[in-house]
Amino acid sequence: MNSAPVQQRFNRSSLPTWVKVITRSFHGGVHPEEFKTISNQLPIDRLAQPEKIIVPLSQHLGNPATPIVSVGAEVIAGQLIAEAAGHLSVNIHAPYCGTIEKIETSFVAHPSGMDDLCIHIKTNDKEAVFRYPKISDYKNTEIDELVKRINEAGIAGLGGAGFPTHIKLGTQINTLIINAAECEPYISCDDKLLQEEPNEFVEAAICVAHIVNAEKIIIGIEDNKPEAIEKLIAAIESAHKKNQSDLIELHIVPTKYPSGGEKQLFELLTQKQLPPSIRPAQLGYLIHNVATIRAAYRAIVFGEPLTERVVTVTGDACPSPKNYWIKIGTRFADVLAQTESQHAQQMIMGGPMMGFEVKNSNAPVVKTTNCILLQKKAHQVQEQPCIRCGECATACPASLLPQQLYWFARSDNFEKAQEYHLSDCIECGACAYVCPSEIPLVQYYRYAKSKMKEQAIAKAKSEHAKERHEFREMRLAREKQERAEKHKQAALARKQAAEKKGIEDEKKATVADAVARAKARKQALTNKNNEND
Amino acid sequence: MMSVWIAVLILVGVAALFGALLGFGAVKFKVESDPIIDQINNILPQTQCGQCGYPGCKPYAEAIANGDQINKCPPGGEQGVKALADLLGREVIPLDESLEVSIPRVAVIREDECIGCTKCIQACPVDAIVGAAKLMHTVIESECTGCDLCVPPCPVDCIDMVPIKTSIKEWSWPNPNKKPDSSLMIDVKQVS
């Protein structure tokens, strides 16, 4: 892809100097059909308030939040209902006004299909809204104050991983990278957000860059979003004029899955590869998703807690595929009903490449739900033997050997899999996409990864048990020795006592002592009886 | 004749020098090798359950080092047998079928039935039970290895072995090879 078509598309003789068209790409990757135009043609819509919402306490990476409301309590929209448990956790707020119905486990969107603790709220028609105090002059506010606000407002990474944002923003870096690539098919929520609110987004980027003390902002966007790019260029231009500085760079990257992966985007934008086990922050970079940046900005400037997000509702079972503002906790069933897509046979949370199937429509939308993909028919996969074609290695964006990893995972040879850097696999699914034998490769890697984690936990547990067992052995031995020592001491004391009395035989002395004691006792008893008489 | 003696002397001298060097090196740079019993013990799961017929993991490790079979440890599972076989250069053999393979469990004392006899405390190999004579006992769940050793000594049978429930955070992806669960696999090409 060269730069000429992009320039033509934007009808400009030359792009500004701060817009770069990246042509050099990362290794591997695939070009699945995009299906983005299905959902990105109409403006972002809003769903009506459902009767009941279910807010899970674990929507982010880290510890589940601790509920601070009791059953039967009235809450208003935006009110804190669950507090972050420790540093690696985030607050959770009520999306609507209502009454706490119950706090118990119920079905959540998770690949396991298991239940998790949720707060169930019956909504009402009140219109009260809670907001934190506005910090409009953030430039003259302490950085700690701003990070604290983001912590309070319950912001977690909205791109999919749900990492608590306040932890990421607690570092000082050089360059803020904003991930607007949105490379997965079907998903268009960030694209629409950029199209509809480009100025606010640019403001938000400047605000977040201020928090982490970044000197430069790079926005990475795929070239399949011409409208968003056009609007962004205009918004950045006016921001540059206003601030008298060229702080922001816009990098247009070639459309290829998974260019939105952290390491892949980093390579595209900086021409540097991120070594395994090194986080971008260690090199002075911070990567954030579009929606997260916006949520953080709104938490500061408008005091808004995170209670809603843009979700792409799409797929062939959805008659009105569109992006919607959906409140956290809205059940999939309500989304289906309001978008008239009840006939969906398969619900996928996330995109077709990295998402997972949600089997129960009672599952609620959470902070990490970027897309709900509704399909008319769930298809069966017929796995066939590997023919060793090597297509997967060509497609792997992490430059791994998926075929080798597959054999190792299949034969439970996890040590070997780790030698081939299984932990560097980002589970993007590019290998499974190109596999002519339809082998669900990513499932094998996920299986191997969770098994390895299990084994590491078991190993740690056994180490601990061994320590305790050894301590017990040591303690028993010590007690035995102490007892022996005590007996020895007592014997010695008896011997000494005997010697004092001049009796040679120790045993005789002991017996004599005992006889004397018995006599005394008898005497005392007789005396007592006499007194009683 | 003289030259022969010189050659012999030189060779003897060189041999003595290198011998001294090697001897010095062997003492100075001595490598403390991990005794095989400790290496075996590190592989064993340390539940101290005694299902192998020995009174703990270390005695079993000693027995293996002296030639006992490597397949008597159900908590270690096939993975453990494999690791032992790797270490000792023996054949991988299936687990002894007379020993049942146990799922991870934890001991729970029905506290209102406990009479406070301390018998279970004495039996616990990892000191995971707290309590005192004539006072109620309880199991520290995080320390319990699920070895069952506290169950037989209890005179009132108030100890249950409860399977550990996996929470959503500890859930593991299933093996796609053994249990094909098509719903966990989204067919990208069909979806597109």
Structural commentary:
The complex is a heterodimer of chains A (533) and B (192). By secondary structure, chain A is α/β, with parallel strands linked by helices. Helices cover 38% and strands 17% of the residues of chain A. Chain A is built from 15 helices and 18 strands. In chain A, the strands form 4 sheets. Chain A has a 6-stranded mixed β-sheet, covered by helices on one side. A 5-stranded parallel β-sheet of chain A has the order 1-12-11-10-13, with helices on both faces. In chain A, strands 3-9-8-5 form a 4-stranded antiparallel β-sheet, with no helix packed on it. The longest helix of chain A has 61 residues, at 441-501. The radius of gyration of chain A is 34 Å and the shape is elongated. Chain B has 192 residues and is mainly alpha-helical. Helices cover 34% and strands 7% of the residues of chain B. Chain B is built from 6 helices and 4 strands, in the order ααααβαβββα. The radius of gyration of chain B is 28 Å and the shape is elongated. The mean pLDDT of chain B is 84. The interface between A and B is large, with 55 and 37 residues.
